[in-house]
TrEMBL record:
Gene3D superfamilies named among the record's database cross-references: alpha/beta hydrolase
Positions in coiled-coil regions: none
PANTHER family xref list: DIENELACTONE HYDROLASE DOMAIN-CONTAINING PROTEIN-RELATED
Domain (Peptidase S9 prolyl oligopeptidase catalytic) ranges: 54-174
The protein's name: Peptidase S9 prolyl oligopeptidase catalytic domain-containing protein
Annotated source species: Solibacter usitatus (strain Ellin6076)
GO MF term (any one): serine-type peptidase activity
């Protein structure tokens, strides 16, 4: 689940398909943009349900091993993945890209102009809004997630997710876990980041074709740093 829409994951999905996986790219069912507090809370719950329904669909396919399902999320999607992976035991690995502990934290404290605009728009209604949506914050779930492999990818130059928020997200999570940082902005889409999450998922899910797929994408021979 990607905050910029399903097509933002297309390159990753192709790489994973070339590695031997079946990928299902899902959209968030609704944007969270300071509608009513209850409406935005329900939109977040719907996003979690969407991820679980994706697992339902994958389980139903004859060409998918239901014991090897992973979930990947970016930004808003990373926070929803944190909830889904914590309550649904079918997910056996998870990648969290540009995430933090919750939308109430992001909207309530982020220096990003979008969050500042929401705070200004809500005015005196901000405290109640944050209270209502906070029940879906990843902070309530990520520490109780099963002991599945978790990769956290964060950006040094992310204008919306301060470094300390990225670190708190990682620190609150249950293990096993690892964190990697990249010289990018909010969209962590450089080749190093793509390669890291492809290799992570390949290892977690037992995919054999990742190095060949990555070699094709980068123009390098699999397993080497040379053309």
């Amino acid at each position: 689940m990607h905050s910029s829409g399903a097509m933002a994951w297309l390159g990753d999905a192709i790489l994973l398909a070339q590695s031997g996986a079946v990928s299902l790219i899902v959209n968030s069912p609704a944007s969270v943009a300071a509608g009513t507090p209850e409406g935005d809370r329900e939109a977040m719950i719907a996003a979690v349900v969407t991820l679980r329904r994706a697992a339902d669909l994958l389980e139903a396919r004859d060409d998918v091993d239901a014991r090897r399902i992973a979930v990947v999320g970016h930004s808003f999607g990373a926070m929803m993945v944190a909830v889904a992976a914590s309550i649904d035991p079918r997910f056996k690995a998870a990648v969290f890209e540009a995430g933090l502990l919750g939308m109430s934290i992001h909207i309530g404290t982020s220096p990003h102009p979008w969050a500042q605009g929401i705070r200004k728009e809500l005015g005196a209604g901000l405290p109640r809004y944050l209270e209502v949506i906070s029940v879906v914050d990843a902070a309530h779930y990520i520490g109780h997630a099963p002991a599945i492999p978790k990769l956290f990818q964060s950006a040094w130059y992310d204008p919306g997710v301060p470094h300390q928020d990225s670190l708190k997200f990682y620190e609150e999570a249950s293990g096993p876990k690892e964190m990697k940082w990249y010289d990018t902005a909010h969209d962590i889409d450089d080749i190093a980041a793509v390669a890291d999450r492809t290799r992570f998922l390949a290892k977690a899910l037992g995919l054999s074709g990742a190095e060949t797929a990555l070699g094709t994408k980068t123009g390098r021979k699999a397993g080497t740093g040379h053309p």
